[in-house]
């Protein structure tokens, strides 16, 4: 683009907006001073930054017809074949449609992004292809990934393969239906409040949200940097572990990543069995106001089955868990809108900025009237609380996260993992498209009381199907210490090997 030097009228408008009280003489002087700044901007404009190389050929793909798009789960179908002979050679994988696949359209569930085509591959995409995966396309997701239901995408609701009148969970909704129906071997979703684990519970598969930062988020459209996680969704535990081994690790471009453990062997412990594992069933994860008794009962039965396999299982009270969702709320509400208003990336961090996405999304305010009610509710809440308190409650909540994490870690000092229902309810009915904001928003946000605290704290959490209630899947969530993914896979694989959840 061409840099336009600011003129006197631009400085006048800026002065009025900022309340600087400049005189006409000062305005003239500052206008002249902007010449030097504009010169440096023009130099930057003329330069070309280094972007990650796109190495594997692909076509833009095609938008599938209804006949080839069961459950309305796909956004774009394509085929990108990875390197033969890799660790996951032959696995067919879907990408949530907020993950960049260069040359293939991406809209993040939002009409405002329709037509955007990324120019880079996400780091995790390159890693999948380097190890032999075949990417089959981009899966639908919820509008800006705000909803935990599957009804908010601009392209219509995603339907649950177990009952097409019900939610498939979100915001990784298309991935959910594709994995649950066996149409792909695995999918990569993202999770800021439960968006990998909620779908896993609603449709009956394995959903792993690893420790915050373990999987690089580079090249994935962010929601809130302290909550952002990419995760693996698969039909079985071992496939999940194999995929995580491939995509985990430093890439040098994601500020979410801290000092990571050198060993990332998640598959070797899948055969180790449950003997010696210590499991704390968290009493406060059950009996929420909207908890369904048959869901709680199915998860308690799952805990008893783990005990029958040799694990030590105790029920523990952890009162602060009941406030975990409340602590998460200001971070998710204000942080999401802060990210949007920062042209989807904000600033003050080092790493890969995808400027093509920033350009594509920069005019979102002009289309805000098209947003679904759940996105509007987040915008309204963030606007009110930021105007009233100037971000103090976002900051206080971030400070309280340390207390919340310490409470979980106190229990985890004596136990290998925590256990609770992934969500308190079975997959609910999809709302009518013409329902009012109360039902629309309620259905989008009703289920994440147990999942959201582990986005705020960053602890790893996996949802596995543990049984059924009234013919619908029930998810059991296991939570561990930072970087204890191998232990969580061990427990999950032991349960999966011993019990077929579909017959329970």
Structure overview:
This protein has a single domain, classed as Alpha-Beta Complex (Amidase signature (AS) enzymes). It is globular, with a radius of gyration of 23 Å. α8 (324-341) packs across α10 and α8 packs across α11. With 504 residues, it is α/β, with parallel strands linked by helices. Helices cover 35% and strands 14% of the residues. An eleven-stranded mixed β-sheet has the order 1-3-2-6-8-7-12-13-11-9-10, sandwiched between helices. The model has no long low-confidence stretch (mean pLDDT 97).
Summarize the structure.
With about 500 residues, the chain is of the alpha/beta class. The chain has helices at about 10-20, 25-45, 125-130, 175-180, 195-205, 235-245, 295-310, 325-340, 355-360, 375-390, 390-410, 435-445, 455, 485-500, and strands at about 75-80, 90-95, 135-140, 160, 165, 185-190, 205-210, 230-235, 280, 310-315, 415-420, 460-470, 470-480.
Architecture blueprint of SSEs:
Layout: H1 8-18, H2 24-46, E1 74-81, E2 92-96, H3 123-130, E3 134-139, E4 159-160, E5 163-167, H4 173-180, E6 186-190, H5 197-203, E7 206-209, E8 230-234, H6 237-247, E9 278-282, H7 293-308, E10 312-316, H8 324-341, H9 355-361, H10 373-389, H11 392-412, E11 417-421, H12 437-445, H13 453-457, E12 461-469, E13 472-479, H14 485-498
Parallel strand pairs: 2-3, 2-6, 9-10, 9-11
Antiparallel strand pairs: 1-3, 4-5, 6-8, 7-8, 7-12, 11-13, 12-13
Helix pairs in contact: 1-2, 8-10, 8-11
């Amino acid at each position: 683009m061409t840099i336009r030097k600011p003129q006197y009228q631009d400085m006048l408008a800026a002065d009025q907006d900022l309340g600087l009280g400049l005189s006409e003489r000062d305005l003239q002087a500052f206008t002249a001073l902007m010449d030097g700044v504009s010169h440096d901007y023009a130099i930057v404009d003329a330069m070309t930054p280094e972007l990650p190389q796109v190495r594997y050929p692909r076509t833009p793909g095609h938008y599938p017809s209804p006949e080839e798009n069961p459950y309305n789960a796909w956004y774009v179908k394509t085929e990108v074949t990875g390197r033969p002979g890799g660790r996951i050679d032959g696995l067919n994988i879907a990408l949530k449609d907020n993950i960049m696949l260069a040359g293939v359209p991406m809209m993040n569930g939002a009409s405002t992004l329709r037509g955007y085509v990324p120019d880079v591959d996400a780091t995790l995409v390159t890693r999948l292809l380097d190890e032999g995966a075949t990417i089959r396309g981009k899966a639908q997701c919820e509008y800006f990934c705000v909803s935990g239901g599957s009804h908010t995408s601009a392209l219509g609701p995603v339907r649950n393969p177990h009952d097409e009148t019900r939610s498939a969970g979100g915001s990784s909704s298309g991935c959910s239906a594709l994995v649950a129906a066996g149409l792909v071997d695995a999918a990569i979703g993202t999770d800021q409040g439960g968006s990998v684990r909620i779908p896993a519970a609603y449709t009956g598969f394995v959903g792993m949200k690893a420790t915050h930062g373990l999987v690089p988020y580079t090249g994935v459209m962010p929601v809130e940097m302290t909550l952002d996680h990419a995760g693996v969704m698969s039909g079985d535990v071992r496939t999940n572990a194999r995929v995580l081994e491939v995509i985990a690790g430093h890439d040098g471009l994601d500020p979410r990543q801290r000092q990571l453990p050198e060993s990332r062997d998640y598959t070797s412990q899948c055969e180790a069995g449950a003997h010696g594992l210590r499991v704390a069933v968290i009493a406060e994860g059950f009996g929420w106001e909207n908890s369904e008794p048959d869901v709680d009962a199915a998860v308690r039965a799952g805990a008893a089955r783990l005990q029958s396999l040799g694990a030590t299982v105790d029920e523990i009270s952890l009162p602060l868990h009941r406030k975990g969702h409340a602590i998460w709320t200001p971070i998710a509400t204000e942080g999401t809108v802060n990210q949007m208003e920062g042209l989807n990336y904000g600033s003050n961090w080092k790493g890969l900025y995808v400027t093509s996405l920033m350009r594509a999304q920069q005019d979102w305010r002009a289309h805000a009237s098209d947003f679904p009610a759940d996105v509007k509710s987040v915008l309204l809440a963030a606007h009110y609380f930021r105007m009233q308190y100037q971000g103090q409650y976002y900051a206080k909540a971030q400070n309280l996260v340390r207390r919340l994490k310490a409470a979980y870690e106190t229990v985890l000092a004596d136990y290998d993992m925590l256990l609770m229902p992934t969500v308190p309810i079975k997959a609910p009915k999809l709302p009518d498209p013409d329902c009012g904001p109360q039902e629309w928003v309620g259905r989008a946000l009703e289920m994440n009381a147990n999942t959201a605290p582990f986005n705020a704290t960053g602890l790893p959490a996996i949802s596995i199907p543990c049984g059924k209630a009234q013919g619908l899947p029930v998810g059991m969530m296991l939570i561990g210490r930072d970087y204890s993914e191998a232990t969580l896979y061990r427990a999950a694989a032991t349960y999966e090997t011993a019990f077929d959840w579909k017959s329970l």
